[in-house]
């Protein structure tokens, strides 16, 4: 949807060009935006075919079509892809790989600790980016305590493109010490945002938040190369499956060595807790009546956070990568 409130259909054409009988070149051209008033699959398919006809494209040579997973686009009964295949059966539908990865990563939010962590990060980023006084205080803190840092500004956590959150988490952790000091100082002021800063300062001290933020950085670093590759116009389905399998292998290896992997994560989070808050990481107290799956009896703080954060995240990623990528290898 554009700034005027009109829905726009983005259309791209991907093809192989052989200029002057030279080596073939894979090209991906943006055709343009097409205003859409009717979002039904029938109208969308007609609009796409009409535009292709205007470009004098021979649709009998079309061997693929790619969209997101929305029902009106991907529906196997009456979606756009089905309607187009009725006339051009060679146009095999492929769910956009970048969108599949985005859905895979977004499902990590099903782990409560990760969902809460990213919620706090988002609120902190918004506080410093939306309020001039807070941003000024933050910049002064960076200048005083981290003058050599190349990062001077927090990055927003994109609400729809989960795959872009990796850089946000990296910058957040790099500037975390300055963030904590700025929040503490703002909380002591009499500004309208002081109460919010106080709440976020308290939230940033929690062991669950510290551990979860490091877990996010660790896991997102595995999927980042795949994300970058999928956004390259020269990428193809075979290579995408190969990269997905490599990420899956890394995740499975991490799952097998979860104890060692989490020990490293726990040590990083422990340093944050000790250096910034002069405390040790502590698991929440367990009640006598179990009402939550995260309310577990464990022998140590490290074990508690391992089984409530890292392991559920890895299992979720493995399951979703398998369902959304590996199970589609039959297309090849």
UniProtKB/TrEMBL annotation:
InterPro entries for the chain: DUF4371, IFN-induced_PKR_regulator, RNaseH-like_sf
Domain annotation DUF4371: ranges: 2-79
Alphabetized SUPFAM superfamilies for the sequence: Ribonuclease H-like (SSF53098)
Coiled-coil region(s): none
Pfam families: DUF4371
Name this protein carries in UniProt: DUF4371 domain-containing protein
């Amino acid at each position: 949807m554009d700034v005027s409130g009109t829905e726009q259909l983005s259309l791209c054409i991907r093809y192989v060009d052989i200029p002057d009988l030279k080596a073939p070149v894979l090209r991906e051209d943006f055709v343009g935006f097409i205003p859409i008033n009717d979002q039904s699959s029938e109208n969308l398919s007609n609009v796409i075919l009409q535009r292709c006809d205007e470009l004098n494209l021979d649709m009998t040579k079309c061997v693929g079509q790619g969209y997101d997973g929305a029902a009106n686009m991907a529906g196997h009964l009456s979606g756009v892809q089905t309607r187009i295949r009725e006339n051009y059966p060679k146009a095999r539908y492929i769910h956009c790989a970048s969108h599949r990865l985005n859905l895979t990563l977004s499902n990590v939010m099903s782990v409560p600790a990760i969902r809460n962590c990213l919620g706090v990060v988002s609120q902190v980023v918004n506080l410093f980016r939306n309020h001039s006084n807070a941003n000024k205080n933050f910049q002064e803190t960076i200048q005083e305590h981290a003058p050599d840092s190349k990062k001077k500004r927090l990055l927003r956590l994109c609400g729809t493109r989960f795959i872009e959150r990796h850089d946000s988490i990296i910058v957040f952790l790099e500037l975390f010490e300055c963030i904590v000091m700025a929040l503490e100082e703002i909380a002591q002021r009499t500004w309208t945002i002081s109460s919010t800063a106080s709440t976020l300062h308290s939230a940033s001290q929690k062991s669950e938040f510290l551990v979860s933020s490091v877990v996010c950085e660790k896991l997102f670093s595995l999927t980042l190369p795949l994300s970058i590759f999928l956004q390259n116009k020269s990428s193809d389905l075979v290579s995408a499956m190969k990269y997905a399998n490599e990420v899956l292998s890394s995740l499975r290896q991490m799952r097998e060595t979860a104890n060692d992997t989490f020990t490293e994560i726990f040590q990083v989070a422990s340093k944050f807790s000790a250096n910034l808050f002069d405390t040790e990481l502590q698991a929440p107290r367990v009640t006598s009546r179990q009402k939550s799956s995260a309310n577990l009896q464990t022998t140590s703080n490290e074990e508690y956070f391992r089984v409530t954060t890292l392991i559920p995240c890895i299992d979720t990623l493995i399951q979703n990568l398998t369902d959304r990528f590996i199970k589609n290898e039959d297309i090849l």
